[in-house]
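User: My instructor asked us to take a sequence, write out its structure as tokens, and then describe one feature of it. I'm not sure where to start. Here is the sequence I was given:
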Amino acid sequence: MGPKPAKCVFCAALEMNPREAGVLARGERCFVMLNRYPYINGHLLISPCRHVSLLEELEQDEAIELMETVRTSVRRLKQAYGPDGLNLGMNLGKVAGAGVEEHLHFHLLPRWNGDNNFMAVFTETRVISESLADTWSTLSPVFAGKEDF
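Assistant: Let's start with the prediction itself. The structure tokens for your sequence are:
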């Protein structure tokens, strides 16, 4: 395994061009970005801007904005994709499945009837029918308004 990057992927994304980083929206304390390794089309990551790993370390204003950003992202995913349901989750710690445990983040995934995505379970293969560029094109217009971030 090579050396660790100087910055985590979330902190680095905030310093990059938003489109290149997949950052769809940024509020004062939180932001929304595309997952570079999505489980399904429209898989979003919602995170505080501050580098924090533990939920209990969030300041009150960060926690409030984080949940408001999740609520707004749910509305916008529904608007863009019209899913039958959504998964929202947070993996806290390596043993809980956190791939990036050093920077707290929610996963928000649109779901459709019949999309059980067995490929990932049985073959460690993901079948995504949309490129990240296409996902950006679908989601960036509905995330363009800053009035609720």
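For the description part of your assignment, you could build on this observation: Strands lie at 23-26, 30-34, 44-48, 85-89, 106-111. Try explaining in your own words what that tells you about the chain.
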